[in-house]
Amino acid sequence: MAEPLSLYTGIVASLGSIIAFSETVFEYARKLAGAKEDKRKLLLEITAMTTVLKDLEEIAKARKLKNTQDLMRSDGPLQLYKSALEDAEKKLRPDNRFIKVTERFVWYFQRGEFDDIIGRIDRSHAIFNTLLNV
Model pTM? Predict the structure, then answer.
């Protein structure tokens, strides 16, 4: 049975929103000078996820995406990735002019905190890849 058009419309909108948010967080991280290895890892993960999300968005626009309801679950991969981005953004987003200057040189993540964010991105990436290959 085909999925209703409204479900695809919701998925396309959600994917578009998360892609835009990914690009924002990417820019925040890109502007930082510290923690080169961690920063590189985060930038690579966000880039890879953005590519996968854009692929999913095109498939959803064509109404060829399977397991669409799994994507929209509150504990699904979209929410998992979004929560990881939100946590990264809290640490990376400049709040005022003074902080904008100083944040370019400071990496605010603690080791366990950063590893948790990367782990959630990796898990959501694996789920998205599975959906693309089904």
Answer: 0.82
